[in-house]
Design goal:
- The structure holds two protein chains of two kinds.
- Chain A is α/β, with parallel strands linked by helices.
- Chain A has twelve helices and twelve strands.
- In chain A, the strands form two sheets. Chain A has an eight-stranded mixed sheet with strand order 6-7-8-3-9-10-12-11, sandwiched between helices.
- In chain A, helix 4 packs across helix 5, helix 4 packs parallel to helix 7 and helix 5 crosses helix 7.
- Chain B is mostly helical.
- In chain B, the strands form three sheets. A two-stranded antiparallel ribbon of chain B has the order 1-2.
- Helix content of chain B is about 60%, strand content about 10%.
- Chain B folds into two domains: about 80 residues, no CATH class; about 240 residues, MetI-like (MetI-like fold), CATH 1.10.3720.10.
- The chains are: A alpha/beta, B mainly alpha.
- Chains A and B meet through helix 2 and helix 4 of A and helix 10 and helix 11 of B.
């Protein structure tokens, strides 16, 4: 990324996150939820942020929105939205951006709507707040937006309360609310996770349609690689508060470089491929209070060598436009892995921990 | 909604009826009673005297009949249909009860079992308990007559003379406790774990944990007893009246205040200060804790985050999106204070000799004035079920998710 170039020098970068660190100060200790995240999104693109639960995806998005709540704090880093650094912007300025240039939809659409207000009023509220519309104008525009996101009979539906509509409809309302002020950036934090599969497809379809119609830039956070494949132009894979791999979506699926991404890919069930057991990444995400030294993935990595548990690898551009945070691909250390074989990620028990970097079968990588 | 209301009202009637039955039964089996004192004082009462006294309190009737007479004023004599008296010879009580007697006769224990020497029959009721001395039944608005505290006077009239004092005390303290407790609760929740929050949760904890009688006595000690001892040296120390609602003669409070004339606004105000202080402190503690926890619960909700993500300023987020939701449980609990406006604060009124309903009830219990105690419980029960209904109806007003069918 253009870490050295002054912000905004490349006109088509909309959001540039640099070395973002967000910590939560709890009674048990400091939770290093986001530990130096770098990525950039170009205007009009859809970028995916993928990773398992607790890897810091949502905290990254909430840091961009500055909605961390009491114990969370951005301790380091910059978040440039065009020419403004959101990490240091005063709260009064931030309030104007939220819902306007910067909007967000969440995972549980039904609980994200206030139960005691009509959905139309909740959409209209954004318009009154940001565009200074009168109540009536805002209501009409809200109904228009609801129709546009595919809510049938929007005029009547706008008078419903959140408990009277389905989860899918609620997410449509949230999207209408988020897009009503034509935001520059829409952050979608697992927008389809709480919905059933058919509704998921409809919501993704809607998001893609709105994206092409309005040209909105989207940061899509998910743990579902299927959603990533369907929606995104670029993907960042997150693990334990760090971006471990960043590239465009095709490259990621065709040629994943980081062992973690490789494991994720292997774990996707393939239609028609009958197996006794699914591939897994052994172990669990590290404790974010006591992070392991060196590479955060090393304890779970079948290829881990001594260097991995001693020093943290930097994010390097391994191939053009393809960044990865792994010693295997680092020019200084890649020699150590010369001629290693890739695993098929089918483990039982503790074998990964017992024999690090052992070839457990699979294809030869030359 | 109509169906729901009909169903609820039927349930409420049942609940009140059962509550009345249970309280009456419990009073009946509890030791003591209006005769206990008389029996102790006058050892030489003959059986006949005692029977007459028992009849005066209707204790000669079996308790289910007494209950029915208390509730609806029936039976008040034989049932007359077409000029014929029915059930006239049914025993409904015992005028002259006989205890179990054991006599030694010719070296043999002869046991005469407990029984009745003279029964009361339905036909006897008009003569023994004439309508003029009997209650028409509490359901017909006749609460009977006081037996001890205002012997022979109607219970209703006595309660009505007490009600203004209780209303005054309870309305003021409830209003003040809302006025202070709610904002404290909201602010504590917004600034959770701040110095403000710690201070007021501690104060609230003390307020709800400290018994009102203790706090009341402490206030009397500090504002009446100490000034009484120290006013010679410190004439500016205010001395508050420790009890009652109005003074009987002019009194001095402190050197900086002219003598207070009885019956004036200042007199009322000074008498109210301590009991209102105790109750306000106690209720305020409860309400601020309730609002704080309710508010904290709501502040964690996803829709509050949505409201912030919409770009609303924090004040709007809190007042419009969080507070409205937090007040839903509050409103429905707050209506349950309504029975308290009638029943008063038993302990606080007693400590400060406040001539209200609570103290009346306390006296009635102490002196076995059953009609007063029963009327008090009955009305409180009725008000409680009505307040609950009102709370449930209010739910539908404040929360669109709730509908009754």
């Amino acid at each position: 990324m253009n870490n050295t170039a002054p912000p905004g020098s490349e006109p088509n970068i909309l959001l540039d996150v640099k070395d973002l660190k967000t910590y939560f100060y709890t009674e048990d200790g400091v939770v290093q939820a986001v530990n130096g995240v770098d990525f950039a999104i170009r205007e009009g693109q859809v970028m995916g942020l993928v990773g398992e639960s607790g890897c810091g995806k949502s905290v990254t998005s909430l840091s961009i929105m500055r909605l961390l709540g009491g114990s969370g704090k951005i301790v380091e880093g910059e978040v440039w939205l065009r020419d403004r650094n959101l990490a240091t912007l005063p709260e009064e300025e931030m309030v104007k951006l939220r819902g306007g240039a910067l909007s967000m939809i969440f995972q549980q659409p039904t609980s994200c709507l206030n139960p005691i207000f009509r959905v139309g009023d909740q959409v209209a509220e954004v318009l009154i707040q940001h565009q200074g519309m009168t109540k009536e104008q805002a209501w009409n525009r809200a109904v228009e937006m609801l129709a546009r996101v595919g809510i049938p009979d929007a005029g009547r539906r706008a008078k419903s309360f959140p408990h009277e509509i389905s989860g899918g409809q609620a997410q449509r309302v949230m999207i209408a609310m988020a897009l009503s002020c034509l935001p520059d950036l829409l952050i979608a934090d697992e927008p389809t996770t709480a919905l059933d599969v058919t509704i998921q497809a409809q919501i993704l379809e809607l998001m893609r349609r709105m994206q092409t119609e309005m040209g909105t830039t989207i940061l899509l956070i998910t743990h579902d690689l299927g959603v990533i494949a369907e929606m995104c132009d670029h993907v960042a894979v997150m693990y334990a508060g760090l971006i471990v791999e960043y590239t465009d979506v095709n490259t990621l699926f065709e040629d994943p470089l980081h062992p973690y991404t490789e494991g994720l890919m292997a774990a996707i069930p393939v239609l028609g491929d009958v197996r006794d057991s699914l591939a897994v990444i052994p172990g669990t995400v590290p404790d974010l209070i006591n992070l392991p030294p060196g590479c955060k993935f090393a304890p779970r990595c079948p290829y881990a060598r001594e260097v991995c548990s001693q020093e943290a690898p930097p994010l390097i551009e391994a191939k053009p436009g393809h960044k990865v945070r792994c010693w295997i691909l680092h020019p200084q250390t890649s020699a150590q892995w010369a001629g290693y074989t890739k695993t098929d990620w089918r483990f039982t028990g503790e074998e990964v921990f017992a024999q690090p970097a052992a070839a457990t079968g699979g294809t030869d990588v030359s | 909604m109509t169906n729901y209301l009909i169903r609820r009202i039927i349930q409420m009637m049942l609940v009140v009826l059962l509550a009345a039955l249970f309280t009456y039964f419990l009073f009946n089996i509890s030791p003591g009673g209006p005769l206990a004192g008389i029996q102790q004082q006058q050892q030489r009462l003959t059986r006949e005297d005692l029977a007459r006294l028992r009849a005066q309190y209707e204790l000669d009737l079996y308790w289910p009949f007494r209950f029915s007479r208390w509730l609806i004023g029936l039976p008040n004599g034989p049932i007359t249909i077409g000029g014929r008296d029915l059930f006239a010879n049914t025993a409904v009580g015992c005028y002259l009860p006989r205890d179990e007697q054991i006599v030694i006769q010719d070296g043999q224990r002869v046991v005469t079992p407990a029984g009745c020497d003279q029964y009361v029959y339905l036909a006897d009721i008009p003569e023994l308990h004439p309508a003029i001395r009997s209650s028409n039944g509490i359901l017909r608005g006749d609460f009977g007559r006081s037996t001890v505290i205002r012997t022979g006077q109607p219970v209703w009239g006595e309660m009505m003379t007490r009600l203004p004092a209780t209303l005054e005390l309870m309305l003021i303290s409830t209003f003040l406790s809302f006025l202070i407790g709610i904002p404290i609760g909201i602010y504590s929740a917004i600034k959770q774990y701040s110095r403000f929050d710690y201070t007021f949760t501690t104060i609230s904890f003390i307020g709800s944990a400290m018994p009102t009688f203790f706090f009341g006595l402490m206030l009397i000690l500090v504002f009446t007893v100490f000034p009484n001892l120290l006013q010679d040296q410190f004439p500016w120390l205010p001395k508050l009246p420790p009890g009652s609602r109005l003074a009987v003669r002019p009194y001095a409070v402190a050197e900086w205040l002219p003598r207070v004339q009885p019956g004036t606004g200042m007199d009322r105000f000074l008498h109210l200060l301590m009991p209102v202080g105790v109750l306000t402190f106690f209720y305020m503690a409860t309400w601020s804790r309730f609002v704080r926890s309710s508010m904290l619960e709501v502040m964690r909700q996803d829709y509050v985050r949505t409201a912030r993500a919409k770009g609303l300023v924090e004040k709007v987020v809190i007042v419009k999106h969080a507070l409205r939701n937090a007040l839903i449980p509050f409103v429905t609990v707050a209506v349950l204070t309504i029975p308290g406006f009638f029943s008063g604060a038993i302990i606080t009124e007693t400590v400060f000799a406040w001539p209200g309903m609570g103290r009346l009830y306390y006296e009635a219990l102490n002196r076995s004035d059953w009609p007063i105690a029963l009327a008090f419980i009955f009305i409180t029960a009725v008000l409680t079920v009505f307040a609950t209904l009102l709370g449930d109806i209010l739910y539908t007003v404040v929360d669109p998710r709730i509908k009754y069918t």
